[in-house]
Amino acid sequence: MKYHSTFEPASPVEARPIDRERFRTSDDKDMLRAARDLTKDINEPSATVYWSDLLLSSSIGYAALTGAILVSSVPLAVTLGIVAALALYRALLFIHELSHIHRNALPGFRLAWNALVGIPLLTPSFMYEVVHTLHHARTRYGTKDDPEYLPLALMKPWSLPLFVFIALLAPVAFIVRFALLVPLGGVIPAIRRLTWQRFSALSINPEFRRRPPEGDLKKRVLWQEIGGAIWAWCLIGSVFAFGWKPLLVALAVFSLTAILNQLRTLVAHLWENEGEPMTVTAQYLDSVNIPPPGRIAEIWAPVGLRYHALHHLMPSMPYHSLPEAHRRIAAHLGAGSTFDGANHKGMVTLVTRIARSTMTRR
């Protein structure tokens, strides 16, 4: 694919060790300039791509889930359950895009996503909106004020399996939140405040406390909370109408989806910051790209999240443009550049790296 830019490519940077410590205090301006200038023409979201991807993923997910509930063959049910988890996982991760795209960029997309995915999976978009942008704030990333950061590589060895295991409880926790805490919060202000501060954000930092919603978000929270509460009670009521099997199968599928997301989160960063503010370049190097030729990353890190480090350079870049953006910047800067320093081979390599780091913390 040819592209045009006012940026004049320089000679590729020769391979050299990357001085990560230097980039904690200063940015690689050549990389930041290249990221800006080489991608100006691919910065608009495609409505066709977004809508077709969401509708196809959610349709496959719910069809497979229905099959997993109805079939009598256990192997077939397990296979359909895995397909459902993967497809719904992809559909669910559009919540990340919703937190970045301009509210007028894709008319109706946020509403459709919440109706198709957010409320049925009890993770409406308000649980990520505003919260995620704090993670991208220049002075918050990697600090105690970052809701999506824990120095996992610097923690005890048992912290990693606990981090993954806790995702198993997420579907049941969401049902309790919406079916019990939301109605009680409607009449008891203290419960409403507690629920909002502690249980209304997809965060991993246990110290994070969410501030009250403001502006347009406040209106969206109201109808999403009501929709979630009604759906949670429908799930509970389904046991009396259809027995336990549909709900248990659905919970198993959603648990698998939650574990996939937690594993992806585990390798989205290197988690090596001890709480100090970082430059944009340092944040980039603490984040992870899993570029081709490997293809399996597109399964466990879909919707552009295999380019998570690049996303931290260009948060507003639509997910479907990230592969081309990565190709352009990598070709311009060359092997061994700072840009190359965030590229990794895959999940196993990254988990091993983080696990080895925790072993030194016994």
From TrEMBL:
Q: Which GO terms describe its cellular component?
A: membrane
Locate the Fatty acid desaturase domain: which residues? 75-334
State whether keyword Transmembrane applies: yes
Q: Does the keyword Oxidoreductase apply?
A: no
Q: Which UniProt keywords apply?
A: Membrane, Transmembrane, Transmembrane helix
Top-level taxon of the source organism: Bacteria
Return the PANTHER family for the record.
Answer: DELTA(5) FATTY ACID DESATURASE C-RELATED, FATTY ACID DESATURASE 2
The name on file for this protein is Fatty acid desaturase
Q: Which organism is it from?
A: Parapontixanthobacter aurantiacus
